[in-house]
């Protein structure tokens, strides 16, 4: 069984983009962790940053618990995630503490600056984590990883780049059998339904997710799907571990 880490910028990103896939992996007996870089401290017009952050940590922990995953937050802050030296060391330490075999993270191209910074930080921390001479400067540093973890990118939000062009996945996961679980995981983020209505003009959080999940599934002639791309940079593991874990649920994307 694999140790799998899904790590993204904000509470609800993993649920939105990979909640169904995580639910499938939970059903297969894998050990799952969901992590966010921030506690979503800018996600409210009514509550101050500390107050909404406390609410959203609870929501994220509850969502993760629905599939038996643990949750933690790296405690960076919204709109303040940067691909810099201190952040790369922190993310590397996080990987060494969590020790994943396989990592799911944000798309390198996305609408939000935090998402793009997370993608670069996680990609490069995966590379750094097995290097013994790379010091994280943590108070109690964990030992280096034995190898670079398998790395996969989730879809960008709404499946497009900043100009609206579709970002094509390498494969789409059939999440129909676990869609109710994905729906429940996202519904755990109750504070965000209010926020998105006020700030993004999105009237229904859960309906948006369903519409999006149907559109992603349609790419592979599935009713409901989530897309992924495997990162295959030099030295990263190349064989399709996530597809192998998911078996027939992973459907190769064809136009
Ligand atoms: Zn986000």
Q: Gist?
A:
The protein is α/β, with parallel strands linked by helices and 255 residues long.
Radius of gyration: 17 Å
Largest sheet: 8 strands, mixed
Structural class: alpha/beta
Q: Give the terminus-to-terminus CA distance.
A: 32 Å
Rounded mean pLDDT score: 95
- Tell me the strand order in the biggest sheet: 3-2-1-4-5-7-6-8
Low-confidence stretches: none
Shape: globular
Work out the strand percent: 5-15%
Q: How many DSSP E strands? A: 8
Q: What compounds sit in this structure?
A: zinc ion
Per DSSP, the total helix count is 8
Order of helices and strands: EHEHEHEHEEHHHEHE
Give helix % range: 25-40%
Describe this protein's structure.
The protein has 255 residues and is an alpha/beta fold. The chain has eight helices and eight strands. An eight-stranded mixed beta sheet has the order 3-2-1-4-5-7-6-8, with helices on both faces. Helix 1 links the parallel strand 1 and strand 2. The radius of gyration is 17 Å and the shape is globular. The two termini are 32 Å apart. The site of zinc ion has 5 residues, from loops.
């Amino acid at each position: 069984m694999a140790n799998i880490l899904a790590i993204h910028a904000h509470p609800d990103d993993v649920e939105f983009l990979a909640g169904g896939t995580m639910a499938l992996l939970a059903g297969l007996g894998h050990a799952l962790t969901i992590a966010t870089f921030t506690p979503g401290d800018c996600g409210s017009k009514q509550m101050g940053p500390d107050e909404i952050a406390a609410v959203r940590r609870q929501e994220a922990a509850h969502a993760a618990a629905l599939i038996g995953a643990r949750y933690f937050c790296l405690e960076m802050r919204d709109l303040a995630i940067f691909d810099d030296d201190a952040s790369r060391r922190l993310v590397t330490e996080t990987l060494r503490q969590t020790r994943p075999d396989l990592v799911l993270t944000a798309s390198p191209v996305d609408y939000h600056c935090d998402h793009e910074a997370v993608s670069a930080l996680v990609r490069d921390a995966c590379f750094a984590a097995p290097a013994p001479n790379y010091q994280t400067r943590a108070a109690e540093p964990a030992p280096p990883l034995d190898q670079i973890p398998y790395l996969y990118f989730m879809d960008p939000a709404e499946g497009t780049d900043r100009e609206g062009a579709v970002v094509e996945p390498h494969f789409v996961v059939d999440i129909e059998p676990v869609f109710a679980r994905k729906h429940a995981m996202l519904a755990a983020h109750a504070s965000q339904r209010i926020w998105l209505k006020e700030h993004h003009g999105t009237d229904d959080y859960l309906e948006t997710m369903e519409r999006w999940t149907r559109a992603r599934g349609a790419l592979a002639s599935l009713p409901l799907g989530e897309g992924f791309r495997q990162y295959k940079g030099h030295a990263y593991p190349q064989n399709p571990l996530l597809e192998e874990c998911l078996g027939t649920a992973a459907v190769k994307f064809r136009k």
